Amino acid sequence: MYRQLHLKLISVKFFNGRLAPIFLGLFNLSAQAHEVSIQSESVSNRGFMTNGYWQAQNLSTRDTPLISYADQYLRAQAQVGVYGLFIEKRATASFVGNSNALVLAANNNASLDTIVQGKIDIKAQFKSFEFDALGLQLSSAPDQNIRWSLSPKLISLNKLTSG
Amino acid sequence: MASYGFKRDAYAMTLSQGFSVDAAIEGDIGPSLWSVQATNLYSDIQAKGIYFSNDKYQVSKTGDRFNFLQNAPVTGTYGQTDKSFTLPQIIRSTYQFQPQQSRWSAKLGGITIEGQTIPWVGVGYQKGSIKLEMNAYDLEVVQWVLQAKNLILPGFDLKFSVSVVPQGQTQSAFTSVSYSF
After folding, report:
1. Across the interface, do A157 and B18 touch by the CB < 8 Å criterion?
2. C-alpha angle with apex B126: B121 to B129, nearest 5 degrees?
3. Is the Cβ–Cβ distance between B9 and B53 less than 8 Å?
4. pLDDT one-digit tens code per residue, B60-79
5. Do A40 and B113 touch (CB under 8 A)?
6. How far is Cα A103 from Cα A53, in angstroms, rounded to an integer?
7. CB pair distance less than 8 Å for A43 and B175
8. Does A33 touch chain B (CB under 8 A)?
9. Which of B115, B112, B166 is nearest to B136 (CA)?
């Protein structure tokens, strides 16, 4: 469900913001590698995060964990000296619970055709955030045996759902 | 003595600024590659709602019942307060084994989301700049990933995936597009 909500295209409005002139200036200052990327990653251990899928599923007395996340972002990174400076527009959502919560949500709590004998557990921990960020990437040299990177970023929140 | 009560003049919740830290580490041991990537390893975002007042009220408890010794200001909006949020923490751990000069590779790992882990295994086949992977999450959802590097022009990479569930239904998506220059 939340995947449908968040799969809307990431707006290019981001580049009209105050950060854009500074960032695009840095693109010109540096002669090193830059990257522009769009990512839309979604993983679930059961089914798909869509209304249609869960509408067709039944309530269950088995407490099978359901874990999933969706992470979509538009990101531009410029290499300035040894640092990577990046801006991104991101939507991240996670769901940790069981399938019954999604079956009920997808059916809008309407009466279900399924007759279930026994106790039905409903568990759901849901987080959904949309934000703009400005960050710095610190990383080791690429030719090391062990490589690392650390990316602190400042966030301006646009939307959240948590529950 | 406990402090209870709410401001009467409720105002809309405002979204504000915060910070987050992503981190990644990887290493090579012969033909093996291991990596741990953490998205939102640590984060904190403040959202302002409605404040608790500083008025003091004496409250006593008798069994399950709370007794206010003064009248509390019951007007206003209840249930709101300042809140600190954390972004979803996603940690991907991967171990990959690829014999030298082999096009085949094997992977296993786990994706930990908010403390719960999805185990997964996968195999990959690479020929030139094209790589095909099959990953099975919790041995339930199978995801096929086609990755092409330097497609059309140098630095332009594309990743496309198709997920399949045991009932046979599929879902496809462009997983990533990136251009390095």
Report:
1. yes
2. 130
3. no
4. 777 777 666 655 555 444 45
5. no
6. 9
7. no
8. yes
9. B166
Asked if the structure places residue B65 within a domain, the reply is: no
Residues in chain A: 163
* Residue in chain B lying closest to A30 (CA): B181
Q: Are B85 and B28 in contact (CB under 8 A)?
A: no
Domain that holds residue B91: 19-45+87-179
Domain ranges of chain A: 2-136
A-chain residue closest to B44, CA distance: A155
Give the nearest chain A residue to B176 (CA atoms): A39
Cβ pair B118:A156 closer than 8 A:
no
Q: Number of structural domains, chain B?
A: 1
A107–chain B nearest CA distance, Å:
19
Residue B103 within any structural domain of the chain = yes
CA distances for B109 relative to A108, A147, B35, B116, angstroms:
35, 19, 9, 13
ipTM confidence score: 0.77
Among A53, A126, A157, A162, the residue to mutate for chain B (most B Cβ within 10 A): A157
| Whole-prediction pTM | 0.76
Q: Does A53 touch chain B (CB under 8 A)?
A: yes
Count of beta carbons in the 10 Å neighbourhood of residue A49: 25
Alpha carbons within 13 angstroms on the beta-carbon side of residue B160 total: 7
In a domain, B50, yes or no: no
Among A120, A124, A121, A122, residue whose Cα is nearest residue A96: A124
- Are the Cβ atoms of B17 and A157 closer than 8 angstroms? yes
The model's pLDDT over A111-133, given as tens digits with 9 standing for 90+, comes to 554 556 667 777 888 889 999 99
From residue A159, how far is each of A155, B15, B78 by CA, in Å? Answer: 12, 7, 22
CA distance A126 to A19: 31
Strands A124-139 and A83-98, bridge-based pairing: antiparallel
